[in-house]
Amino acid sequence: MQSEEEQMSEALVRIFENVVLTEEKSLQAGYFNDLSIAEMHTLTAIGPYDARTMTNTAEDLGITTGTLTVAIDRLVKKGYVHRERDKRDKRIVRISLTHNGKLACRMNSKFHRVLAKHILAGYDEKDRKHLLDLVAEVDEYLAQQLRRYDSSENVRATARQVAKDTTKETK
Amino acid sequence: MGDFNTDREQVFADVIRIMAETLEISQEEITADLNFNSDLPFDSLQLYEFVIDVEERYNIRLPDEVLDQVKTVSDIVDVIMKLKK
Lengths: 171, 85
Description:
Helix content of chain A: over 70%
Order of helices and strands of chain B: HHHH
CATH superfamily of the largest domain in chain A: Winged helix-like DNA-binding domain superfamily/Winged helix DNA-binding domain
Largest interface: A-B, 11 and 9 residues
CATH topology of chain B: Non-ribosomal Peptide Synthetase Peptidyl Carrier Protein, Chain A
Number of helices of chain B: 4
Radius of gyration of chain A: 21 Å
Number of domains of chain A: 2
Number of domains of chain B: 1
Number of helices of chain A: 6
CATH class of the largest domain in chain A: Mainly Alpha
Low-confidence stretches of chain A: none
CATH architecture of chain B: Orthogonal Bundle
CATH topology of the largest domain in chain A: Arc Repressor Mutant, subunit A
Oligomer: heterodimer
CATH architecture of the largest domain in chain A: Orthogonal Bundle
Distance between the termini of chain B: 15 Å
Strand content of chain B: under 5%
Structural class of chain B: mainly alpha
Low-confidence stretches of chain B: none
CATH superfamily of chain B: ACP-like
Strand content of chain A: 5-15%
Order of helices and strands of chain A: HHEHHEEHH
Number of strands of chain A: 3
Shape of chain B: globular
């Protein structure tokens, strides 16, 4: 018999993999089969409304602006993203979704909503609330873990930068 | 009040025009009481095409939470009237 830890750990990994796989398959079978999941997530990070800066979008996605630039180049070519320089400050690049980009983004949100709706449909109101509370706790715990690693990485990076600067100064 | 009614009529006409173009049907076939789910032949993609066109036309936001409350053509006109100010 599996221990509770094993059950939990295997379920978490399977849930993650199955959500991603289902999303990927629904993308391949749908209208937007020229988009990868990573590209769809980039569209979602930009969002269907206001234009965003490259820096803010890269931060939200947890990637560098260099990596985002490559992704945006492809999405501009495919006709999903519009890119322009800020009229006042030419150093700032703003990105927004084209009509097709908005359509893809909203269809993807709909996919997630339908998935969630079907999962919740199997429970009565009391159990739905309980399930949502538990999921929120797991979500918060995992977000905390991520922040812990992020900040220790930042601390190390800052320490490395300080060490480098100090070495330069003493030379 | 007269202005409000004229304005609403204009929004209604716009909605019918955008809807007819999206669904490729005649504008005469669309009336205020038609239901989005049971009377109008929208698939999800066409529905969002219509929604995005309306958002861009009026510079408003119609997220899914708002759309969930919309049942009929008349409802969407009411929502637009409320948001477009």
